[in-house]
Design a protein that fits this description.
The structure holds two protein chains of two kinds.
Chain A (H helix, E strand, L loop, with lengths): L15 H14 L1 H18 L1 H8 L11 E2 L5 E2 L22 H36 L2 H16 L2 H11 L6 H12 L2 H15 L2 H8 L4 H37 L11 H8 L7 H29 L1 H9 L23 H9 L1
Helix pairs in contact in A: 2-4, 2-12, 3-4, 4-5, 4-7, 4-8, 4-10, 5-8, 6-7, 8-10, 9-10, 10-11, 10-12, 10-14, 11-12, 12-13
Chain B lengths: L2 H22 L23 E5 L21 H4 L4 E3 L10 E3 L7 E3 L4 E5 L14 H10 L11 H5 L19 E5 L2 E5 L7 H4 L28 E7 L4 E6 L17 E5 L4 H10 L7 E2 L7 H7 L3 H4 L2 E4 L3 E7 L9 H10 L2 H7 L6 E3 L26 H10 L6 E8 L8 H12 L3 E8 L1 H8 L8 E7 L6 H8 L19 H11 L4 H16 L4 E7 L1 E4 L4 E2 L16 E2 L1
Parallel strand pairs in B: 1-10, 1-11, 15-16
Antiparallel strand pairs in B: 2-3, 4-5, 5-7, 6-7, 8-9, 9-10, 12-19, 13-17, 13-18, 14-18, 20-21
Helix pairs in contact in B: 9-11, 10-12, 14-15, 15-16
Classes of the chains: A mainly alpha, B alpha+beta.
């Protein structure tokens, strides 16, 4: 999928200061959004309380339980539903007997932490470079523009895999994942911010500031950034789910977190061959991954709709499904196809 | 013999030995299916046998094939001086005559081996097979453009180290004499009691010089076996073999050759192969695979299906998966540390990680648990089924690590190969109980193989495996523990870098023995002696489980290959 270049001029010019509270209220009024929000809050709580939760269960994510496996049958868990019992609420892992519940809740930490961290990296780099391109000299603009182009054209999955492979193995893997996904996925944000900056730059209040003698940095900070907040938040909201998938994809391919650390992608990678013999083991991480990505996507889409008045009005007149899924109406806002990691996801699920 | 000429070939040795395990390892319904009702009828002639494989037979030149005992599909087309005994189980580890009248007559302390050809041997075109053709077949395997075979011929034959093959040097190899059409004599530079085993490899297949087309020969090799190649598409991706009218069972008591046609299809995904064999519909009912095992999850499914279970064959190929130490790296230079780790290993976890007790047998000996290899049970550091952390802690204390120890274990990123993350995690978990913290260092497949086999980059502790070229202790122990086989400028398999003159000397002494059973005993004793030094920690011996189609009959699985012998298979 070719990353779409956000077009200048079509950007929302909503004034964030005035609309912030209102947008928030409108968002909460939607039931799907509320549900998505709840799911995300719940996931965040689970992730934060992972050690506590597994302690309540009485298990930890790395201990082997060979006695719970049918060794002669390939190491499949004994008992039904993948070895579900009072001690092991969601069963145990085939081949090792590690507790699935404990691994899932600990895996949530990696998934969310990496996704949020990578999104922050992407947004920070994207905003800084976008502003620099929009405000800087023609040469700088061209340089950043070309670099962005290259970043967007890079087969990021392949690149991410090789990056993960060459970094010394004692480098903390979650941080590495965050950096790799973040550093490969800022292209879209940078383009968006540059286009916004170019159009905002022409507006009277910016011109006035410039005439008053404000420097570039001050203009960027005081005049542009507040107006950029809305589109950037929107874009970040759609980047986040694709980063969740990005992390899962890299871990699925065996270049993510190091064993015995668990992550959903790593669990899925081990589970794929077991989908017939132990369906539970495949369904659980898949379901969590699905719920997370769906919740973030719904939320991101809603934020986008609310912050982009034109898209919102068109949606209200037009179809209803717009609120629940990514729209393809080309109404100006960035599409939810994050540049890098979404490719990873496709490969991983293929 | 120059070391540099054989180092790159050792590389081939290793990689292909591994490939062989995957490639050759298989099984048919043996004892575990309760005798399998499918074997009651006498095998019938005729029909088409389909072979469903992952890897294409992209090498089909006898000079370039690296096989154990002549291979499975190749052995249908190429007859060799000797071959493996095509019977079930341990008796299948014997070497038997094929083109030759016996397994060879040694003289001058097993440095000279003489063979005589049987009468009435013919190629597919009806022309007679002569010893000159066998000699020529071996000579062309020395040509650089036809490389790929095992390194032994170059190492063993007198004056062969720098021989460049008959295309460059038409004087041939003086080490091979053919006094007449029926006699061939090999002169070796040292005693090799295992020479009859080497003579099972496809390099010993006759190649008529007039029909040799160099690198193109593999498109249509001249058959000496029961089948000839009628179609070879896309570099061996699809191979069709039909009966060779000039082959006669009168001169070949090993190959049964029941089907009229053998259709080898490759490039398939392992899951697809197993699914097709298990469904067994249409032509797949008469199908087998020569390179795809059942994985642990597939085994879990078979468990509940009696009919399917009866179609699973079990085999044992001589192989060991082990933890290897580099004794030049601290703290593994200290025997006490190595012993502590050996005591701490939880082999139950390890076996489960390798696919469970049906696919892996816990190992305490380096040699495979088969008599032919000289298996002598020993367990110098008894860890029991789940490890002995107390004893391990005690040893660590003696070694100066009273508060535990942090070490790094290097493993491959490839799952399902015995060097992957599953196994590494199982080792890690086991050592935790003994206060040993294991950090994992993962390398991707190719890089892993290169790193662990290069003296300069070899990590302190890593996962490794070894399979022999033939069922004997020699090719199992010598490359790993013979100090003269330490290779500093290429692929090195003596990872402990053991160079003990008494071990080297014992290897030389055993190589002189031509009685296999007697040699086996000595190999077993040597294995025990080396094992006590804790240079490696044997983890498990893999077991191969394979499905075959429901119309497949007469499945024979020898302990030589551990897989069903395609020359014995019949279809209903």
């Amino acid at each position: 999928m070719a990353p779409q270049e956000p077009r200048a001029g079509e950007a929302p010019a909503a004034s964030p200061a005035a609309g912030g509270r209102q947008v928030w209220r409108r968002l909460l009024a939607r039931r799907t959004v509320l549900a998505a929000g709840l799911v995300i809050v719940l996931l965040a709580l689970i992730a934060a309380a992972a050690p506590l939760l597994s302690a309540i269960e009485g298990q930890d994510p790395t201990s082997f339980h060979n006695d719970l496996l049918d060794s002669a049958a390939g190491g499949v868990p004994t008992g039904s539903f993948g070895g579900v019992s009072a001690e092991h609420w969601l069963g145990v892992e085939p081949g090792t007997g590690r507790d699935v519940f404990a691994r899932l809740v600990h895996g949530a930490r990696i998934s969310l932490l990496v996704a949020v961290g990578a999104t922050l990296v992407q947004v920070t780099i994207g905003v800084l470079l976008g502003l620099a391109a929009g405000l800087g000299s023609r040469l700088l603009d061209q340089l950043i523009g070309n670099t962005t182009e290259v970043m967007l054209a890079l087969p990021s999955l392949v690149f991410a895999i090789s990056l993960m492979a060459i970094v010394p193995s004692d480098f903390p893997r979650p941080l590495l994942l965050t950096l790799v996904i973040g550093l490969l996925g800022w292209g879209g944000t940078s383009r968006l911010v540059r286009a916004q900056t170019l159009s905002l730059k022409q507006l009277d209040y910016v011109a006035a500031a410039r005439l008053a003698g404000a420097g570039r940095w001050r203009i960027a900070r005081r005049e542009l950034l507040p107006s950029l907040a809305a589109p950037v938040i929107t874009y970040a909201a759609v980047l986040l789910p694709s980063n969740v998938i990005g992390e899962a994809g890299l871990s699925f391919l065996g270049v993510g977190v190091k064993p015995p650390t668990s992550s959903w992608g790593q669990m899925l990678s081990g589970a794929t061959t077991w989908f017939r013999a132990d369906p539970m083991y495949v369904l659980l991480p898949s379901a969590l991954l699905f719920a997370t990505v769906l919740a973030f996507t719904v939320l991101g889409d809603a934020v986008r709709t609310e912050l982009d008045p034109r898209a919102a009005s068109r949606l209200r007149v037009g179809t209803a499904r717009g609120a629940d899924g990514p729209t393809a109406d080309g109404s100006g806002g960035p599409t939810p196809t994050g540049p890098g990691p979404s490719n990873a996801a496709e490969e991983a699920t293929a | 013999m120059s070391r540099s000429t054989f180092t790159p070939r050792r590389l081939a040795a290793a990689t292909v030995t591994v490939a062989l395990v995957v490639g050759v390892a298989a099984c048919g319904p043996k004892a575990d299916g309760g005798g399998s009702g499918s074997k009651d009828a006498a095998p019938q002639q005729g029909g088409t046998l389909t072979v469903l494989n992952q890897n294409p037979q992209d090498q089909f030149d006898p000079a370039r094939l690296y096989t154990s005992g002549g291979g499975n599909v190749p052995s249908l087309v190429f007859r060799t001086l000797t071959t493996r005994n095509r019977v079930d189980g341990a008796a299948g580890t014997k070497v038997v005559p094929d083109l030759a009248t016996d397994t060879g007559t040694p003289s001058e302390g097993a440095t000279v081996w003489t063979y005589h050809l049987k009468d009435g041997l013919k190629y597919e075109d009806g022309s007679p097979i002569t010893t000159a053709d066998v000699k020529y077949g071996i000579e062309r395997s020395f040509a650089p453009e036809l490389s790929g075979g095992a390194p032994f011929l170059r190492d063993w034959l007198v004056g062969a180290a720098d021989y460049q093959g008959p295309y460059k040097d038409d004087r041939g190899l003086a080490a091979i004499e053919t006094p007449d059409e029926k006699t061939i004599v090999f002169h070796l530079n040292k005693p090799e009691g295992d020479f009859p085993y080497l003579a099972t490899q496809t390099q010993f297949a006759p190649v008529p010089k007039a029909k040799d087309t160099g690198t193109k020969y593999q498109d249509h090799p001249v058959s000496s076996g029961p089948y000839q190649v009628v179609k070879n598409e896309n570099d061996g991706a699809h191979l069709v073999l039909k009966r060779n009218p000039n082959w006669s069972s009168a001169t070949d008591d090993q190959r049964k050759a029941y089907p009229d046609t053998i259709d080898v299809q490759s490039g398939l995904d392992p899951a697809v192969i197993n699914q097709r064999l298990s469904a067994s519909t249409g032509p797949d009912a008469a199908a087998v695979t020569t390179d795809t095992n059942l994985g642990p999850s597939e085994l879990a499914q078979v468990k509940d299906d009696k009919a399917l279970a009866s179609r699973v064959g079990t085999g044992h190929f001589g192989y060991v998966n082990y933890l290897a130490f580099n004794t030049k790296v601290k703290p593994f230079d200290d025997p006490k540390v190595r012993q502590a780790i050996a005591y701490a290993i939880n082999r139950t976890s390890v076996v489960n990680a390798a696919g469970g007790s049906s696919l892996a047998e816990a190992a305490t000996t380096y040699l495979p648990n088969q008599e032919a290899f000289g298996y002598t049970p020993y367990d110098p550091f008894p860890a029991g089924a789940t490890g002995n952390p107390e004893k391990a802690k005690e040893l660590l204390k003696e070694a100066g690590y009273p508060d535990g120890l942090t070490i790094t274990l290097t493993h491959s990123s490839e799952t399902g190969k015995g060097y992957g993350p599953n196994l590494a995690t199982a080792v890690q978990d086991g050592l935790k109980a003994a206060g040993i913290t294991v950090q994992l260092d993962v390398l991707d497949g190719t890089k892993y193989s290169k790193t662990i086999h290069t003296v300069g980059t070899e990590p302190g502790l890593f996962l490794a495996g070894w399979g022999a070229d033939w069922p004997s202790g020699g090719p199992f122990l010598a490359p790993i523990f013979d100090g003269r086989q330490i290779v500093t400028d290429g692929y090195n398999f003596n990872s402990a870098q053991l160079n003990d003159p008494s071990v080297n000397d014992e290897i030389d002494q055993i190589n002189k023995i031509t009685d296999h059973a007697e040699a086996a005993k000595r190999w077993g004793a040597l294995d025990k002696r080396i094992g006590e030094q804790a240079l490696t920690i044997p983890l498990f011996h893999p077991v191969y489980k394979r499905l075959s189609g429901k119309d497949v009959r007469n499945i024979v699985i020898s302990d030589w290959t551990g897989v069903l012998d395609i020359s014995q298979v019949a279809v209903k």
